[in-house]
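Worked example

This section walks through a single chain of length 249. The input is the sequence exactly as stored; nothing has been trimmed or padded.
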Amino acid sequence: MSAPSPDLVYDIGLHHGLDTEYYLRKGFRVVALEARPDFCAAVSTRFAAEIEAGRLTVVPCALTPRGGETISFWVNPVKDDWNSVYRDFAAKGGHEVTEITVPTVTLPELFDRFGVPRYLKCDIEGMDEECARQLLADGRRPNFVSMEASSFDIIAYLRAAGYDRAQLVNQAFHWAHPPPQPAREGSYAAVQFTGHHSGLFGRELDPARWTSFTEVAERWFDFMSLSRRDGLLAHGWLDIHAARGESLA
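Given that input, the structure is written out below as tokens.
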């Protein structure tokens, strides 16, 4: 089994590159996956020096169950963080969407090509669960993983993959959690997180909030129940972060 590379981060769901910029500033090498060709081109231009130095690799593909194919991908011109391989995801709220075609790749193929990262961040509309399923099936394990907690199956897959510590992070409140100084992951990089960042990760998350998957599942169900009853009270959306106890030691 391949050991994780301590200086490598995967940004699955590159978007406009805010997370990638943060990881690069912290001194990590980054493999960034993004299906939209224009987003890939813009980030590649912006970080041309980092690409030239071998610190950033942009992979212009969608993560799907089968790699090496060409599929439809749906672009939302108004909410460009809702782009998805699923038309219904991209068109939420009645938005008009545009169809393009993109190549595909799988998580094991990325591991084969670039190695296993210390941290894997995944935020891809409609495919986070597939990423978790592929991670479980592959057997190679990053030290830390985060995904949008859009289904209970994602939580179950991560637990089955051998992660025994987890925490839920409300993505609406990143602005209140600046990076710790001194840094506990990589180098210190000052940043004002926004709703388009994934935020802190790994050992930089609040140590007191790492808990069991049983507790995380209960909190997730509580949040989802309140969200269905009153979305104004259950503000924001949740990411799940997963780790093993030895990675946190």
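What to look for: Residues 213-229 form the longest helix (17 residues).
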